Amino acid sequence: MELIAMKQTKAYLHGNGDLQKTLVVVFLRGGADGLALVPAVGDEGYHRQRPRIAISEKEAVRLDDRFGLNPLMNALKPAVEEGALTTVHCVGSEDDTRSHFEAQDLMEHGGRAGGGWLGRFLRFREQSSAGALSAVALGASVPESLRGAPSATAMRSINDFAFSGSEDFVEALQSLYREQTGVFGSRANDTFRALDRLRSLHSKDYTPANGAQYGGDRFSTNLRLAAQLIKARLGVEAITIDLGGWDTHISQGPAITPNITRLSNGLAAFRRDLGAEMKNTTVVVMSEFGRRVTENSVLGTDHGRGGVMFVMGQDGSEGHTIANWPGLANEHLVGPGDLPVTTNYRDVLRPVLTRHAPDADMAKVFPDHRPEAI
Q1: How far apart are CA 59 and CA 65, in angstroms?
Q2: Domain locations along the chain
Q3: Does residue 319 have a pLDDT over 80?
Q4: Measured distance CA(43)–CA(56) in Å, rounded
């Protein structure tokens, strides 16, 4: 019995052995302005449409002849130079309501389907994982994208994943379920093993590797916890993190500066901390929609359509700037003056998911979507 339990524990903690891959999904809630994060500094239309809030070509972190990163994202310059960061412009969903709630709902469900796209990805595979920590939402609740996952846990800190009873109470529960068979017993024992592993993390002060320094904000704290969970070999396959506050109708510059800095510095610290583990980790950054191309009268931007996604890894598959770019002349814009969606967000996610789990049934992950190569 002891040998069997040891094998089960090893399989659970390591998931797919040392080849275990983890997907980290960062959602920028509020409709992040793609032209602020990745300005089209080489397009004259950009400077014409935003005469007061545009970023100059000299200031931007160069990506190619047309695009650059906002200078506040300078911490990600090494990722750009090392080919570890892909940016995708004019990306979004088919939703044209410009409503935060409807656009987020459609995007997180992966279309008009039951459950969330990430939950379906974890479920519809030949070897789906139901470990207690296979999917972790770092926050107060599980997002819609994880609905329908075989297992999903929300936590703000490692301390959240614990029984409130005494050690005797926990031992009594373990004794009760130790000999149980079937799905219920397996899930219970998986949970106990996860608790034991996390208990060992409680007793240590986590020290980020490679000189990585995280900020004290909630986003950086969540990324630090994500790195700790990944390196602890707990079988974590998916982690979700939210960063809100991107609805910048008024004074966009001062309003968006702290968030851009948090995003850039947090991701840079996470990448440095993981080091070689980034070969088995992919970070996807997405938002429900972008912003209006033209700045408004109070130096902000209103709800738009096409936005930006980022994909950060280190397996040699990143390092591109992807944009089916129509230009910023008024005749190329849609609705009241928005960037069109020329790349569907599912087409960005699909190759990432396929790399992580080649056996995933993508027709079930994104039903009723006709994929297009990007």
Answers
A1: 14
A2: 16-161+212-365, 162-204
A3: yes
A4: 11
